Amino acid sequence: MPVKRPARSQLCQKIHPRGSPAVHNPVISRARSWPERSIGCALAGPVVGSSPVTDERVIRLGEVNKSYGTGAAKTHVLRGVSFTVERGEFLALVGQSGSGKSTLLNIIGGLDRADSGRVEVLGRDYNRASDSELSQLRNGEIGFVFQSFNLLDHLTCLGNVTLPAMFGSHDNAAADRGMDSLRRVGMHDLAHRMPAELSGGQKQRVAIARALFARPSLLLCDEPTGNLDTTTGREVIEFFRQLNERDGVTLIIVTHEHRVSSVARRIISIRDGQLVDGDSASDSDGSSTSDRPGGRPLNSESRGDRAERPAQGREAS
Q1: What is the pTM for the complete model shown?
Q2: Which of 23, 110, 188, 217 is least surrounded by CB atoms within 10 angstroms?
């Protein structure tokens, strides 16, 4: 009597069941006790809850359009932007001021909505998601780092870091997790200081700690080194690089600085609301080589998309 073999989908579900809990490693989870003074040396272990690098695409954008104003005052900020991002990528989004890169980052983060087009992030279809659902996604799975820090002056460093816990479910361990986040950026010894007592570099470290508080799988940064001196900016960049390489956190940084884009694994250039020939190195003045004459609008591809193309006829990047 022939034996009935299970379908392929059933086998896959048995091997990789959906919703299966991540393996908990108490050694990794344990907070470290030695002092870590600089961001460059603070990242000594993986963020608990981060996902490993896979071929899964965490961002899918298709023909995204965005404009502000009406009538003669209407300004088209994004025009038919399409690209995908795989889990674990480190992507720099570069362009001149007013090119639309910050607007694009805000749409990816759910802070703004596209006028039209497809926006899917971490498996959520933004066109079907409610404002409440987007808020939960931002609070629990996406971290934000801004150029202006966005710290609340009436809260201590620790209070600012644990702020996301006030908008989520009750967390008795919020203070401990907040201290762990501050320790990772070398600011645990200043946990009870107010923002007014901090330098610009220290404020940015606190902002990064807040972004890491919920252990996000996607980190969005808008000009994170714009208000920092060269030395501190270099430490922040190195921290992001380690965070991506060691933890597999998907990282997108909006920047016009060569020192930031030079460490990214992939570069996408945007000009006048359209993507131009990306995945290219930037010049020392911060402008991408694709911004020179000959750069052309495109729908940018992820590493997986490029791997699917025939090797013959590819452009050098």
Answers
A1: 0.70
A2: 23
In a 13 Å sphere around the CA of 59, the CA atoms on its Cβ side amount to 31
Share of the chain above pLDDT 90, in %: 50
Residue of 266, 262, 286, 287 lying closest to 278 (CA atoms): 266
- pLDDT tens digit sequence for 11-22: 444 434 444 444
> Which is it for strands 250-255 and 218-222: parallel, antiparallel or unpaired?
parallel
Q: How many residues does the chain have?
A: 317
Distance CA 267, CA 253 (A): 10
Q: Decide: helix, strand or coil at residue 26.
A: helix
How far CA 239 is from CA of 11, 185, 215, 243, in Å, comes to 40, 8, 15, 6
pLDDT of residue 106: 95
Burial class (CB in 10 A: 0-12, 13-18, 19+), 26: exposed
How far from chain centre, in Å, is Cα 265?
13
Pair of tokens at residue 136: 């939960």
Spatial separation of the C-alpha atoms in residues 317 and 281, rounded to whole Å: 8
Torsion (CA) 117, 122, 127, 133 in degrees, nearest 10: -150
